[in-house]
Specification:
The chain is mostly beta strands. Strands 1, 2, 3, 14, 15, 16, 17, 18, 19, 20, 21, 22 and 23 form a 13-stranded antiparallel sheet that branches. Strands 4, 5, 6, 7, 8, 9, 10, 11, 12 and 13 form a ten-stranded antiparallel sheet that branches. A hairpin with a 3-residue loop joins strand 4 and strand 5. The chain has two domains: about 230 residues, no CATH class; about 210 residues, no CATH class. The chain contains six helices and 23 strands.
């Protein structure tokens, strides 16, 4: 059902502030035509869409397991390679690698700070060639058994708690990260020493040589316990190198000293997080569900069906000045002990373009993709320039382009953004932290509305 009414003169005076580029084919000459401004509403329906796997090419990693009373069990683990700077060399009097530690740093986590979990580190037996062509490497549904031998002895195992481990050092300040540090053992140190000494040190020439000839990478996962998920910001492989130097007394090269050499899991090498959600998430996509949901990571988003054919039949000859869609967040029904955050940003994108958007590292163009932030004062997410999207689709209809099954559907997906020094969005990726929101749903019986402001040139008599 559609409501139509003549807009007031005040709307006509301000409608051009709704969008800096009005769109449509209703061009007119101001001194020849009378401008009629009209506001209309159209019905839209919404439903919850399950994202069981998402593209997760980020420089962060996630680790842990948590069971939520509403959404069920969720776990996170990851594979990472370790970078080696070009031309890495130890002193000429190198005597060996005395100790090696793997260090996981994080500032934030979700869940019970005192819950005890066990992390296990395994080495990969396959060198992953990350040339950007195999997009499946970065989906959260990858199978770690494709890259490591589950029957081999682990390199390291350690019990940890999100808070206790980090606060063992009483000198830690609020700005310092939390950390988990694991010793990788003498055998691993001896192995690294041999690899450094062979082939004229060329195994440490760069990341490619190091990954293919020394260390293919790590699979890091929890094997026991649950209650928290860590948001890892930095991962370091730190080697304690021993070498000889001149003694202060003898003046001869006879004194043994040590130095620490860090190797990072950086953006230049491969990292991918695996995430698994409970089958319970499927309950939220039922046709009779009273709400729609946003749940991160790798969980639930909201799908919107727009009445595009009806709008085209009625509006294609008018100028679309503004189309606004607002979705209201309801109070959460989650009664778990740890409150989830609310997704800060939503990406609106055509359903058929969602995969290519993330795989090709696109940013919102305000034509077929848009960003909106959560407004806590109104409990809404609002998109106000959808006239550009609708006009773009109208042009497809005029050109009689083939419609796919999802041509009239858009997705609202929780995302995180990266800004440059001038606050321009330069990167958009799936929200990988634990957040959720429950939205008012639009159904055939109780639809949501989009608000449309158009202008029509009416020939003066």
């Amino acid at each position: 059902m559609k409501l139509k009414f003549l807009a007031a003169l005040g709307i006509a005076a301000t409608l051009y502030s709704c969008d800096d580029t009005t769109t449509g084919i209703g061009d007119f000459v101001a001194n020849a035509d009378e401008i009629t401004a009209v506001a209309e509403t159209y019905n839209v329906t919404t439903r919850t869409n399950l994202l069981d796997s998402i593209y997760s090419r980020t420089s962060s990693a996630y680790l842990g397991k948590y069971t939520d009373p509403e959404f069920g069990e969720y776990s996170a683990e990851f594979i990472t390679q370790i970078n080696c700077v070009e031309g890495q060399r130890f002193p000429d009097t190198f005597q060996g690698i005395e100790e090696t530690t793997l260090e996981l740093y994080y500032y934030n986590y979700y869940g019970d700070s005192l819950a005890t979990l066990r992390v296990q580190v395994d080495t990969l037996n396959t060198a992953i060639n990350d040339n950007g062509k195999d997009k499946q490497l970065y989906y959260t549904s990858f199978n770690p058994e494709d890259f490591y031998n589950k029957n081999a002895a682990p390199l390291a195992v350690k019990d940890y708690a999100a808070y206790n481990v980090a606060t063992a050092d009483s000198t830690k300040s609020a700005e310092d990260p939390y950390s988990i540090t694991m010793s990788l053992g003498k055998d691993f140190c001896d192995y690294l020493t041999r690899k450094y000494e062979e082939n004229d040190h060329k195994n440490f020439d760069d990341a490619h040589a190091f990954i293919n000839n020394v260390l293919k990478g790590f699979y890091i996962h929890t094997t026991h316990g649950e209650g928290s998920v860590l948001y890892l910001s930095d991962i370091w492989l730190r080697m304690k190198v021993k070498y000889l130097t001149k003694g202060n007394v003898s003046g001869k090269v006879d004194s043994l000293v040590y130095m620490y050499v860090p190797f990072a899991a950086s953006k230049e090498v491969f990292m991918s997080t695996r995430m698994q959600n409970s089958e319970k998430l499927k309950e939220f996509v039922k046709e009779d569900a009273p709400y729609t949901y946003l749940k991160t990571p790798a969980g639930l988003c909201t799908e919107v069906t727009l009445p595009l054919q009806t709008m085209y039949d009625e509006l294609s000859k008018d100028t679309l000045n503004s189309i606004t869609l607002s979705l209201t967040k309801m109070k959460s029904s989650n009664d778990g002990p740890f409150k989830m955050g609310v997704p800060s940003n939503l990406l609106l994108v055509r359903k058929s373009e969602m995969i290519s958007f993330f795989e090709n590292n696109k940013v919102a163009d305000n034509i077929t993709s848009f960003l909106a932030s959560y407004d806590s004062s109104t409990n809404t997410y609002s998109f106000s320039k959808l006239n550009r999207l609708v006009s773009y689709i109208f042009s497809e209809l005029r050109n009689e382009e083939k419609k796919d099954d999802d041509w009239d559907k858009i997705l609202l997906i929780p995302v995180t953004t990266e800004l440059d020094s001038e606050n321009n969005v330069v990167s958009i990726s799936h929200d990988m932290e634990v957040n959720s929101a429950r939205l008012v749903r639009g159904t055939e019986e109780n639809p949501l509305n989009i608000k449309v402001i158009i202008t029509k040139p009416t020939q003066m008599k």
